[in-house]
Specification:
This protein is of the alpha/beta class. Helix content is 31%, strand content 19%. The chain contains 9 helices and 13 strands. Helix 4 crosses helix 5. Strands 1-13-12-11-2-3-4 form a 7-stranded parallel β-sheet. Strands 5-6-7-10 form a 4-stranded parallel β-sheet, with helices on both faces. Strands 8-9 form a two-stranded antiparallel sheet. It has 2 domains: 159 residues, HAD superfamily/HAD-like (Rossmann fold); 103 residues, Rossmann fold, CATH 3.40.50. The two termini are 21 Å apart. Strand 11, helix 7 and strand 12 form a beta-alpha-beta unit.
Length: 278
Amino acid sequence: MTERGPRAIKTLSEILDGYDAVFCDVWGVIHNGLSVFRDAERALREARAAGTRVLLITNSPRRSAGVETQLASLGLGRDSYDDIVTSGDVTRELIRQAPGPVFHIGPRRDDEIYEDLPVQRVDEADAEAIVVTGLFDDEAETPEDYAPLLGRLAARGLPMICANPDIVVQRGDRLVFCAGALARDYAALGGPVRLAGKPHRPIYEVAAARIGGVDGKRVLAIGDGLATDIKGANGFGLDALLVLAGIHGAELGDDPAAIGRHLEAQGLSAAYVIAALG
């Protein structure tokens, strides 16, 4: 980042010569939950053709195989990325370490996170830990609906394992709440919370291992979330490309200097900004 703020670019190809690998966010960067952004798909495919490794790194609570199936259903070409690392993948170790039976908060589609784990799932009253993957119904509910439940659980001091640190995610032209919103509220009540997805180190360590430990200075992290993608990249020592069309689009604007000041005020930085990945 310069005194004029992050460098504004129009295409990913402008800067790829400086990087051996890309860690790219998924929701808000490659798709909006309903359709794939074709310019982003093309940019990642071209990056791979030029010899750059492309890993998708996502806070989805689902395992990588489930996310790959989801991306295929949306029409994303498998030739646009090399591998996927999900928050669900890395959170499984935290679940394995749970102190006892767990109470699950989240939709049934996330049940795959428990596959082959020696963990007993129980109702609220019998739980010794909580696993949250999302809201039960993120189309109709908000975090406020969970205040009584979270209050009861926090009063018992139960540890919460959050499989998706995102607060919100883009779905079509609106934002819906994720597990991170419940973890935020639980922590505010004094409840203990454990997370492994972005911006925390475990997910980046897994991603780095997948590319054979390439020098972090030669890895570019791409994302639209300040508290997850950008903070995580900064903490792991990676250059960051901030996608402005994502969840912070309305607040950030398009002036690099103003964006730089906004980031600096939050203790963050990005090397580059782009309107939308392409």
